[in-house]
Amino acid sequence: MSVSSEQKVDNGAVGHAPHPAPAAQKTSWWKDEAQESTRRNLGLVGVLLALFAIGAFIRPDLYSDADWVVNNIMVILTQAAAIGVITVGMTFVIIGGGIDLSVGALIALSGVWATTLATQSFGPVGMIFTAVAVGIGAGLVNGALVAYGKLVPFIATLAMLVAARGLAAQISGKQTQISTDTFINSLATTRPLGIPMLVIILLVVAGLGWVLLNRTTFGRRTVAIGGNPEAARLAGINVRGHTMLLYALSGLCCGIAAIMLTSLATSSQAAAAELYELDAIAAAIIGGTLLSGGRGTIVGSLFGVIVFSAITNLFAIANLPTEVQNMVKGAIIVVAVLLQQVRFSSITQFARRHGLTRAKPQT
Amino acid sequence: MTNPIPDTSRRRLLFGGTAIAAGALLTACTSNEQTPTPTQTKGADTENPNTAAGKAVTIGFSAPAADHGWIAAITNNAKAQAGAYKDVTFKQVEAGKDAAAQRAALDTLIAEKPDVIVLLPHDGKELNAFGLKAMEAGIPVVNLDRAFPDALAYRLQIKGDNYGMGVAAGHYIGKTLKAKNVASPIIGEIAGMDELELTQERSAGFKAALATYGFTVANRRAARFTADSGQKEAQNLLQALPKMDALWNHDDDQGIGVLAAITAANRSEFFMVGGAGSKKAIEDIAADKTVLKATVTYSPSMASSAISLARLIAQGRGMSDLVELQVPKEVILASETITKENASTYLKLGF
Amino acid sequence: MSEQAERGGDVVLKLSGVVKTFPGVRALDGVELEVRAGEVHCLLGQNGAGKSTLIKVLAGVHRPDSGDVQWLGEQVSFSGPQAAMKAGIATIYQELDLVDELSVAENIYLGHEPRSLGFVHKGQAARQARELLGRLGHGEIPAHRLVRSLPAAGKQIVSMARALSHSAKLIIMDEPSAVLAHDEVGNLFRIIRELTAQGIAVVYISHRLEEIREIGDRVTVLKDGRTSAVNLPARTTPTRDLVSRMTGRSIEYVFPPRPDTAPGEKLLEVRGLGRSGEFTGIDLDVHAGEIVGIAGLVGSGRSEVLETVFGARQAEAGTVVMDGRALPPGNVAAAVRAGLGMAPEERKSQALLLGQPIYRNMTLTNFSSYATAGFTDAGKEQAEASRVADTLELRPRDVRRAVRTLSGGNQQKVVVGRWLLGRTRLLLLDEPTRGVDVGARAELYQVIRDLAANGVGVLLVSSEVPEVLGLSDRVLVMREGRVVRTAPATDLSEEDVLDLVMAGSLTAATTEEVAA
């Protein structure tokens, strides 16, 4: 049933105070959610440009060579590829109000499972199927523990992290398993149209992720559940079922990333993808995903991953030790989050002081 | 409103069926059965009187459970070598995940009164006290690779030489470049986990050896002993050094990734030296189709030797080539350089 | 006055002409209050009369816009809750503000631990805490126990011990009996009597007249942010007097006229609905086009009934039948499919995605129906939402605005609008006008009546009695988990309902008075 538009509510009946005049249809651009994330992404692009400038300053000999620069960008993107894929899954989980600490371990498990001699005998299709199935399966276990077992996501996925590494070590017999499959190995070396295949895979996954988040009912449910689980439940959304699917999605991304990493390293082992979970979470956070859920963008997360990858690359080119690089990474996470807070609250205050936005409604 | 129940149940059934089928397939996929790799053992040698069966002895053994190929090889080698002797009973205890767990496991081992204990401790310092205790109880202790600070805590110490590994790699690279008459070569280094002392020792040896030729390292990256981290660091190193003359990679396991990065970047103007001496690396060197031209060993074969020597200690015999009637107190393996020329002799020692 | 002779302490607190406004609301509009040492001073007033704001002014949470607050003979203006506490005014809020994961002693001394050089003297704190608990007659509560493990009554004792630890001279208790069982209330009163015997003044807020009669000395009545009566004798003022001073609120509630047509077919039939500890034996019907209201105090079980009908709580007994089909208990999705919709009490925490645009909030329950193969259609959603926004006179009209930028009334319209988009035929409204300013209420009333005119059944809960009476066709009055009266709205007066929810029945209260 619905009310037809002919029925006008009679609001002239009471002598109540008139409402504040409807705000101008053109909203102040920094208040708009979409613009807010655009600004954040522009900030990350600024960081990338700054990193490029620093590189050019340190090694003008390299940066003056156009071919080298293009190739270096491809290297940065290639190194962002596997982490980028899991960050897409991670972004969904975090927007949905959860967290997945098991992604690194699931890459190792999927990778190891897909490179056993038995699996390799099924060829590339068998390997890809195995990696993806293992990822989804483990993700479903995570999801079931969180949604139906009522475990805190942090604990459930932490348990999965430990268990999956253990299982991976068990399956591999603690050995590095070499991939002899030429198709899988060639993924890392082929460059259709000059773009590395792994980068193309990342772009496809991110593109699908963007559509899924912004254009489908699945994405809508994710935002609703993370933004206000009680409201989502009372709206008749199957919160638990959907939560389970979110972790499965993250697991699927791990399976894809496992194949990508196997292809890059032409091998797989139980210790692979060490601390990838932290990189993925950090990338999502500096990309503007709210750790408490309900807000986040795929594009922002992607920029976050690329920034980290570019930092690693710059430090190698500048021949600076890894420990300094890790300190800088930590600082960037803190600064990025601080900047976002300072900037938005101060701008809102500024706007309010100057009457640019409506006063916050009474609560 | 339609009743959704039959629909869901059919979907569930379908899903369940698929899941079970996938599960069955996946379970089959965990198998790694292959022709068993020959372990690094010393076979019966009729010329050597020490191989003749002697007093029956029990050897206790403990090594940490690690997910690295080298440690796995240590345990496999020890087991296989013990199996080669008819007079040896091999008793392995799980070392657990840290020093405390290993100590607890070893205490139960002492209670079983083995004739000798061979162990690769989680941490030499932390298990020093155990060594003392076992020695006091009259059980000789053979320390593998990670030294006890206290000389009273062990009967025999057998270990590799990390500094020597770096020196061997440095000399190989130095000599080769001198022979090619490269004046000021660009040398890269991909180290292992930087926070480990052994990584620092290896790099120090490498630097010192290169210095004798007047060479320095142009760029050094630290990976994590894993193939994927090796790939990542190598890819960046190759970007930083568009032209290179030589590269030393500390660890052959991470070297799989390093080689993959080099292949993907289509680079071949330099040569590479590996570290540790894995079977795959030795095969690659013998095949001579990659930039990998040599590797310097840090061989897990020391575990096999440790078992052999432990047996001799327990039986009160010495090493027959030496004048002394007992096994010496310390054995430090030389880091050997494997090249195409001698690869075939080392292949059986690869892990 | 005779009370002064009875409890003849000095005046400790005196308020005159206190005004406090919030955007759109004049919460306090000239309040007078006089509290003497050693007395129990009761505050009485309907929801929205300004009691909570007054408490917060006393506790230093709000600063009055104008007016005079005299504490111990001096004019004061507290800079914050800490300042008020230091001055000797302690407040025990309805939602006890204790830290569950700290021990009893730690809670009592939270923020003012006995310490030197930054080290807390745990032993001393525990000893003093035991002493305080002993003074309250509850020496058996272990000082080291985690507060989490205490029952509600125990927590309240801890709150009171905390107030005493500040050497409070005035303790404000906001509906302290609401969380207590009957025999625990007796103990509470014993403690209050001991406190007043020591010269401590107590400001006591309760809806239960019998409690006020038993423990109170004087009563001040609030209505519409003003004091409608001060210093009435608590024991002897006739109930009818008290009730009449609380009612007849001056704000013009303008309700749309009731239609002449009889309601349509029966939509909802609830029989014997029950949940232990919340409510029992609830029977109710809602017909198409009918507005049914439930009146009752907080804690009477009214919101719980609504949530159980909707399936957000699982029924333990009884049946909910919609259109002749029984709904599975505890299944919101099934209820929504059957055509039920609910606007919950806590709009922000239970219904809205504040950061999301209006249209997405409106389509939250049925965005799938605008989607093709899982792909949402933002254009269609916005068009539909705009159509409903027009109907509801939503301001601003731009449905792409984030909901958090809307006023309370417009946020409520978004929640109602959500169910208009779906095929909702029975709307459950829990406190639909909470936080909605007076002007916007009339619009909401009209919207609700229009919905009914279109054949939607409405089941409504409100703690504002005039709202229930003015808007509904039929009214159920609930008290302590039971329906005590069902009648057409026109047959009940505000006084009748207030009396029913507060005391049980007018006649009974009158007899008591005679007896007293």
TrEMBL record, chain A:
One of its GO terms (cellular component) is plasma membrane. It comes from the Bacteria. It is found in: Cell membrane. Its main location: membrane. It holds the Pfam family BPD_transp_2. Keywords: Cell membrane, Membrane, Transmembrane, Transmembrane helix. The keyword Transmembrane applies. Residues 1-32 are annotated as: Disordered. One of its GO terms (molecular function) is transmembrane transporter activity. It is a multi-pass membrane protein. PANTHER family: ABC TRANSPORTER PERMEASE PROTEIN YPHD-RELATED-RELATED, RIBOSE IMPORT PERMEASE PROTEIN RBSC. This is ABC transporter.
UniProtKB/TrEMBL annotation, chain B:
GO terms for cellular component: cell envelope. It comes from the Bacteria. InterPro entries: Peripla_BP_I, SBP_2_dom, TAT_signal. It is found in: Cell envelope. It holds the Pfam family Peripla_BP_4. PROSITE patterns: TAT. The keyword Signal applies. Keywords: Signal. GO terms for molecular function: carbohydrate binding. Residues 31-50 are annotated as: Disordered. Residues 59-317 form the Periplasmic binding protein domain. Belongs to the bacterial solute-binding protein 2 family. This is Sugar ABC transporter substrate-binding protein. The lineage of its organism: Bacteria, Bacillati, Actinomycetota, Actinomycetes, Micromonosporales.
From TrEMBL, chain C:
The keyword Repeat applies. Keywords: ATP-binding, Nucleotide-binding, Repeat, Transport. SMART domains: AAA (SM00382). Residues 13-249, 262-505 form the ABC transporter domain. CDD domains: ABC_Carb_Monos_I (cd03216), ABC_Carb_Monos_II (cd03215). GO terms for molecular function: ATP binding; ATP hydrolysis activity. It holds the Pfam family ABC_tran. PROSITE patterns: ABC_TRANSPORTER_1, ABC_TRANSPORTER_2. It comes from the Bacteria. This is Sugar ABC transporter ATP-binding protein.
